[in-house]
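ENTRY TYPE: paired fold submission
RECORD: A
CONTENT: sequence, then structure tokens
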Amino acid sequence: MSEKKMLVLNMALKEDSSIVQDYISYHANVWPEVIDDLKKRPIGRMRIYNNENRLVMLLEVDKDFDIRDGIHIEPPVPKVKEWSTIMSKLGKKAESGKLDSWTEMNQVFDTNDYVSKS
């Protein structure tokens, strides 16, 4: 069994409750091609949480996984590309005009650093 790591990423959706609901609805019934792509990548486990239009993704991957290579296999199969295009249309644009995308967060605290392991 290979060693795992957890990546935490965040991004923002457009500040529109119907857009947020669309995003949640799509993720309530993810297309099988998208799930197959994640398994082949391989993504061990992905969880996405939201608070209004802010999203946080917890991504469990192998220790040697590099997020700079992307979450999906490149080049994407047509259905995964279609999914990604739909999801990107729901994203918020930053002040620079660039679309907000999944960005890795830095860990600043872990109770394991303070609580002894017995």
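RECORD: B
CONTENT: sequence, then structure tokens
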Amino acid sequence: MQFSAAQIAGMLQGEIVGNPDVTVASLSKIEEGKPGTLTFLSNPKYTEYIYTTEASIAIVSAEFKPEQTLPAALTLIKVADPYACFAKLLEAYNQLRQPAAGISDKAHVSATASVGTDVYLGEFVFIGERASIGKGCKIYPHVYIGDGVKVGDGTTLHPGVRIYADCIVGNQCTVHSGVIIGGDGFGFAPNAENNYAKVPQIGNVIIEDHVEIGSNTTIDRATLGSTIIRKGVKLDNLIQVAHNVEIGENTVIAAQTGIAGSTKIGRDCMIGGQVGIVGHITIADGTKIAAQSGIAHSIKDNGTIVQGSPAFAIMEYKKSYIGFMKLPELMKQLDLIKKKLDL
């Protein structure tokens, strides 16, 4: 589909500088702009590209004043917040690419399951007994939804998602390919023969509204009760969430983080990539954990920032790291002192 500068400016309440009739059919980065595409300039580091881009339309700040001659074919749309406006266009563009509602004749829906209106079910989707799918859901091919699962309105499950029995996914969630929700937690008990007997995992997973889960992340079902992902949480790819973990509202976690069982993470936390968190601890609201940190103890004070393995206060970590970097020189100086003292 094609859109004119006038249509886009109307959607964003922007001011046109140039040709209001110029049209675009796709989006591009400003440094890779091509004719017929729309781009945006938000970060000042990319300002130089506005003077060479071949894009047809660029979204810029209302305060933008060119310091060089702009390309003759470029039309500007001036807005209050270019990044937010471009994100709005990306969402609209993404919605246009969504499949139309309809149920494939190759999908399996159990007789006792319920499916809401305006739902898309792709090829080889499996929906188990007593499962419930809300209205407006997009469920792509090869998704497995087990018995008793509930999926809320407007949720998107990308290809290859697996949701085990009795788990709950809220409204307006996005779950990317390869995610497994409700696999067994890692529960084993050693016996007299030093073998490990499996402890049955009979709980479930509850995912609240507006959660996004990245590809190949796994969220284990609880031993008893529920593993809980609260409203607004964003999980990156390749994250392990163990049984009975609870993650508070609007917390964001980057890739390859592992969270051991029964840990409670507060709301509004930010956790970097490759962080390891032990089990049975609590992490206070607003905590920030730097990448590759190891969390071995509870963090009790709200707004704490930590780094390192084991992690401690970030400013102390930075001071310690400066000292660590100076160790080779300090060792040389120590050797010289020892030689002078004939030690």
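NOTES ON RECORD B: The CA atoms of residues 35 and 55 lie 5 Å apart. The chain has a mean pLDDT of 95.
STATUS: closed
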